[in-house]
Amino acid sequence: MAMPTAHSGEELIELQQKLARVQSLLEAARRVHATIRLDDVLAGVLEIAAKELEADGAFFVSASPQWQVRTSTYGEVRDDWSRWTESAEMPGYASAILPGERGETLAHLVICRREPLSMEEADFLEGLALQSSLAIGNAQHHEKTLEWERVKMDLDAARAIQRSLLPHSVPETAGYSISFRSTTCYEVGGDYVDAVQLPDGRMMIVLADVAGKGFASAMISTTFRSSFRAIAGTGVPLDQMAERLNNLHWQEGVEARRRYVTAILMCLDPVNHVAEVVNCGHNPGFVVSGGERLRVGASGPPLGMLPGRTYEIEYVPMPEGSQILLYTDGLTEVFYEDEEFGEDRLMELILDSPTPDLLDRVWQTLTRFARGARQTDDMTALYLSRTAIPLRAGGETA
């Protein structure tokens, strides 16, 4: 039997050392992946690097502001540790790259110790950096997931609040039917519809569309609601209301002006059967009155775009069977491939006689036209019709 040589004994010791280093790396990887909190991962990696490699200290270096804020040193490091690449004195620095998903350098894991690293130690540091990169990626993904969950909860709450600000029921007006419908393309939107009964029996109605979509537009929509309701209660003429709303929005500042508001204001007089309408840079309102189909166009720019602008009232007679459809451009700008639904198609949906389910028909038609394509804008509409001639005291018709 061959006797073991000194050379084979040295090889055995070397293999045992390599095995121990691999086991240490496996244990280090287990510890690194044992937590999902990013701060804990970063701190744990530095501690493992310093202790396993018998270093005086360890730290991360990265150009990312996020890393500079969140990471710190571990152990004892020199005051000029941030200039580690310029140092050639002992105790020296050894480093390994933390690679990103696309091969980019996320950071450097750096240790400070008195002797240079052996080949096995350098391999350990490189392996630890690789495992650290994976663990940090998982922790960052976890943080983003938690952040998105918080954002989603806030958006759900904002959506509920915005829906609660819409009128839960439209005030009843004898001889008239009023309905509205609103859907947003995101959790919240910039469309707004409202109806307010005045003490003298008239009804103030508004349909508005804040420029843009999403949360910023929803905030402006809420502010606009407060302004509209406050001014509507004063009973000022419709053109003056538009002027006040315009100036108030302009005074909110530059950011608010970028979120200007197109709107149609309407005041219904159910006794004299007249609707006053002011269009502020909005899509034309559709009117069916006395057998004619009309469009009420804009008499001025959107609210909040230019200060000191004036607006004009258009008077719409409301004989029996009259209908008014107000809508935001989300309805007319529904597309199928490159074809737009458009105003003409929407106008054609208004029948010669009032129908209480008109808005249901509109939404069904838009869904069929788009062939299931995703909604890309907020969609809101209000439908007003004179359905019957109410009786006055004594049985006389109005």
What does this structure look like?
- With 398 residues, the chain is α+β, with helices and mostly antiparallel strands.
- It folds into two domains: 12-77 and 84-150, GAF domain (Beta-Lactamase, 2-Layer Sandwich), CATH 3.30.450; 166-386, PPM-type phosphatase domain (Phosphatase 2c, domain 1, 4-Layer Sandwich).
- It is built from ten helices and 16 strands.
- The chain has helices at 6-32, 38-52, 65-70, 119-165, 215-232, 238-250, 254-258, 329-332, 342-348, 358-370; strands spanning 57-61, 74-75, 92-99, 105-113, 176-183, 191-197, 203-210, 261-269, 274-280, 285-289, 292-296, 314-317, 323-327, 335-336, 339-340, 379-386.
- The strands form four sheets. Strands 5-16-13-10-11 form a five-stranded antiparallel β-sheet.
- It is elongated and about 110 Å long.
- The termini are far apart.
Task: Summarize, please.
This protein has 398 residues and is α+β, with helices and mostly antiparallel strands. The chain is built from ten helices and 16 strands. The protein folds into two domains: 12-77 and 84-150, Beta-Lactamase (2-Layer Sandwich); 166-386, PPM-type phosphatase domain (Phosphatase 2c, domain 1).
